[in-house]
Amino acid sequence: MAFEDLLEDPVIQKYLHELVGPKGMPVAAAPPDGEVTDEELAEELDLELNDVRRALFILYENDLASYRRLRDEDSGWLTYLWTFEYDNIPENLEEEMYRLYDALEERQEYERNHEFYLCEICSIRFEFGEAMEFGFECPECGSPLESMDNDRLVNSMDDRLDALEDELNIDADA
Description:
The protein is α+β, with helices and mostly antiparallel strands. It has 2 domains: 2-83, Arc Repressor Mutant, subunit A (Orthogonal Bundle), CATH 1.10.10; 88-166, no CATH class. 55% of the residues lie in helices and 14% in strands. The chain has 7 helices and 5 strands. It has helices spanning 3-8, 10-29, 38-45, 49-61, 89-112, 128-133, 151-168; strands at residues 65-71, 78-84, 116-119, 124-127, 146-148. Keywords: DNA-binding, Transcription, Transcription regulation. Residues 8-90 form the HTH TFE/IIEalpha-type domain. One of its GO terms (biological process) is transcription initiation at RNA polymerase II promoter. GO terms for molecular function: DNA binding.
């Protein structure tokens, strides 16, 4: 996928936004060609230098940017020249999807293997052991705790896991 196409994809835009947040999004959404300093980016995008640096380091931590250090011979100051590595985005997204799949599978197992009780007034959910400790009364308001049917939640997780299996080409029966 071409560099420009990556940035137009709403999924990738959301991924970048989740990584760098609203203040860092201008940095992530407008990567220059070649190397650039953080000061040049801050000036070009009219952003605070700390916001630019924060976004660059987050991109770096996620293998989406790299840097090269240069030392000024006269002053000894270090200059960081940044390069954006957005070719790694599809691989990063796939890793995120696998993490989501594993977490969702674990959560679904938890939901299936536990009994829950709900305070309908406070909307607080308790596991059976907690509900029993409180005498099946809400510790906040004193209302009786009602047995909670979480089948819809488990079924939604099933649907989401199926969709992720299709997306990731996972054979669930293997």
